[in-house]
Automatic annotation (TrEMBL):
Keywords: Heme, Iron, Metal-binding, Monooxygenase, Oxidoreductase. The keyword Oxidoreductase applies. GO terms for molecular function: heme binding; hydrolase activity; iron ion binding; monooxygenase activity; oxidoreductase activity, acting on paired donors, with incorporation or reduction of molecular oxygen. This is LinC protein. Belongs to the cytochrome P450 family.
Length: 463
């Protein structure tokens, strides 16, 4: 929450708002208009707050369809967004929201429509950004291939995708297994602790340090940099100002530049920095592009896997019959893992920008329109997924979901993420009878990252 009283002048207003809405041109214009108004503070406060929390606590079926705005962080934090999407899928599956804190946007809510948008990257471009609430890096002009179109996207993806090739994953497996074991053996049995911090964050951070061959003792810096890049600066934030965030990201750039210089002068190796330093398409990257690709890999492999690790524990606790099924047959871990990823859907959505006038389900999109593909909704589409609200660990086609996207941008790390989750659950089932959730989970305040900051648990050892 930003404290408006703290802003002494318009420069600060823009500095606070630009990163938050740097893709919401309409919203920026709106702030520009307010800047000329005499009652700046009041209007700004009222307008932004109004747009932000208008849906929470309301029955989605009594709101006129054209007033529905699903892009509200509070809705996701309260886990209250589901019925909004249920209604949109039934009554207006391709829905236009004319006003939101991120400007106007289209919502695509059904599984097959999302596949259609993903399948046509020429018309639905990624180059203008990929989240409705932008990844918060505008203090530095960071470039990432997830937010590029062809041919540049394909060239850069090709250079780094080897790190997650089956051969490399097989080589990584024993190390991940060992690290999973060390983490699980260090946990306090019988005491309440936060699973998110002790397991979900720790394991994903260790994996990132391994992928980058980053100094192991400094690994929490990776989590810190990722968190700083994706959260808002503000009085209660991890960093207080845009300048502070820029300094943190510059530290990140400095650390990785040193590693780059080290690797570029040595023969190519299997870690990501070495691959970037020696790859044909990436070795001449600008510093901000280099940082962008690193941030993409850090962020891509961080929040998502982290929240799937926490989500799995929650899903099994909410569905004790499935936990029993798993205890009876731990061989089901292989099909449970993709079901956890569908059930959790760690990224709510991805966004595209229309490059030419086109149609979807009879709705007319104009060049420049923003189109948000809501994976959270597609993954609950009853026309494609049987009993979509149920968590079923032995589904027939568990990998048939949208959590990794689809098409040319489909998640590069999907097999790595699945492997981490599989090894973790094998380790858990070997050691514990139950990871019991003993308090309410605290969910993230975000329209993009669907996850948890706290999940209090207690471990029950195997009898
Ligand atoms: C892209 C989800 C784990 C690296 C994506 C996309 C999604 C996603 C939705 C965009 C797909 C699209 O636009 O069609 C997830 C989920 C994960 C996960 C749910 C865990 C459960 C990882 C890991 C890595 C990673 C571990 C690290 C290696 C990437 C990269 C891209 C990407 C590099 C960009 C691909 C491109 O634009 O070509 N991910 N991800 N992800 N992910 Fe993941």
């Amino acid at each position: 929450v930003i404290d408006y009283q703290e802003w002494p002048d318009m420069v600060h207003v823009f500095q606070h708002f630009a990163p938050m809405i740097n893709e919401g041109y309409a919203a920026i214009e709106r702030i520009g208009e307010f800047a000329m108004s005499e009652a700046l503070d009041n209007e700004l406060e009222n307008s932004v707050m109004d747009l932000r929390d208008t849906m929470l606590g309301r029955d989605p079926y009594t709101i006129p369809l054209d007033e529905i705005d699903v892009a509200q962080p509070a809705l996701f934090q309260a886990d209250a967004f589901w019925p909004f999407f249920d209604r949109l899928r039934k009554e207006d599956p391709v829905h236009y929201c004319k006003e939101s804190q991120f400007g106007p946007f289209w919502s695509v809510t059904k599984f097959n429509d999302i596949m259609e948008v993903e399948g046509n990257p020429r018309v639905y471009s990624s180059a203008d950004g990929i989240s409705i609430a932008p990844v918060n890096t505008s203090a530095l002009p960071v470039e990432m291939f997830i937010a590029m179109d062809e041919p540049k996207h394909g060239e850069q993806r090709k250079t780094v995708q080897n790190v997650v090739a089956p051969k490399n994953l097989a080589e990584l497996e024993p190390l991940i297994k060992e690290r999973v074991g060390t983490i699980l053996d260090s946990l306090p049995v019988g005491e309440t602790f936060n699973w998110v911090d002790r397991v979900s964050i720790e394991l994903t951070t260790q994996m990132l340090a391994t992928l980058f061959d980053f100094p192991f003792e400094d690994r929490r810096k990776l989590t810190f940099w990722s968190d700083v890049a994706t959260t808002q600066p503000g009085p209660d934030g991890l960093v207080k100002t845009v300048e502070e965030r820029r300094d943190v990201l510059l530290d990140c750039l400095k650390a990785f530049t040193e590693l780059w210089n080290d690797r570029v002068n040595q023969p190519p190796r299997g870690d990501l920095i070495s691959m970037l330093a020696h790859g044909e398409a990436t070795r001449n990257m600008q510093p901000y592009e280099f940082l962008g690709n690193l941030m993409l890999l850090i962020i891509g492999g961080n929040d998502t896997t982290r929240n799937s690790i926490s989500g799995g524990v929650l899903a099994l606790n909410q569905n004790p019959n499935q936990y029993n099924k798993l205890r009876a047959d731990p061989g089901l871990i292989a099909s449970m893992v993709p079901e956890i990823i569908r059930w959790q859907t760690p990224l709510t959505s991805m966004r595209r920008t229309v490059t030419e006038d086109t149609q979807l389900r009879g709705k007319q999109f104009k060049k420049g329109d923003k189109v948000v593909m809501w994976y959270v909704s597609g993954n609950r589409d009853e026309e494609v997924i049987d009993q979509p609200y149920e968590f079923i660990i032995d589904r027939e086609r568990p990998r048939h979901h949208l959590s990794f996207g689809f098409g040319i941008h489909r998640c590069m790390g999907n097999r790595l993420a699945e492997m981490q989750l599989r090894l973790l659950w094998e380790g858990i089932m070997e050691r514990f009878d139950m990871v019991e959730v003993v308090g309410e989970p605290v969910r993230s305040l975000s329209t993009l990252i669907k996850g948890y900051t706290d999940l209090p648990v207690r471990l029950h050892p195997k009898k």
